[in-house]
Design brief:
Blueprint lengths: L1 H15 L12 E10 L4 H4 L4 H5 L2 E4 L3 E15 L2 E15 L4 E7 L3 E5 L5 E5 L13 E2 L2 E4 L2 E6 L2 E6 L7 E11 L13
Antiparallel strand pairs: 1-12, 2-5, 2-12, 3-4, 3-11, 5-6, 6-7, 7-8, 9-10, 10-11
Amino acid sequence: MKYIFLIVFSLLFISCAEKPAPAPTPEPVLIQKIEHSDFMSNMIEEYSLSQENLKKIQFYTSNEIVLSKQSQVESIKISKGVLFVDKTNSSNEIIIKASTPCLFVKGDKKLITVLFDNNVKLNFVNPCANGCMTNSRYYLAAENWADKTGTLELNGVKYKALGMSAETYLTIDKKSLNNNNVESVILKGKLLQ
């Protein structure tokens, strides 16, 4: 009898409990897709990007840039009738890794200047600015590119751009937003009358 009373009391307690709330209506699904995109010459016009807009975009390098400066110091010393010539070679390198962030300083369809840390400013040039039929990336600008080595000036000092530097161009993060609204209707069907 005791167990029957417990069962009846449990059933009454369960029946008085609150019913679960219906599931909320689903919100529209927002899909964000981030792409690391080449910064192409047509983007300035296509997206109506002003100088101020470009300063708000995070730029990156596509490949590693290696800038090298070689110098040779020669000192002469005479001791006990012997001429001593001491040649000291030194090199200075600046390495900018692939995907290093940089900021837009100024630019147009032909040339863009970007800023890295330590006040390092580099120019990137659009080789198709003077009449190519296609859109182009902005590549590292240097003088006298030969065998993937070029010369550029950095804060008044000449450096050699080496390695993959000749193939380095600017990229940006491009995010596409696609709004997908999903409305579901469950049809009950039609019966003959």
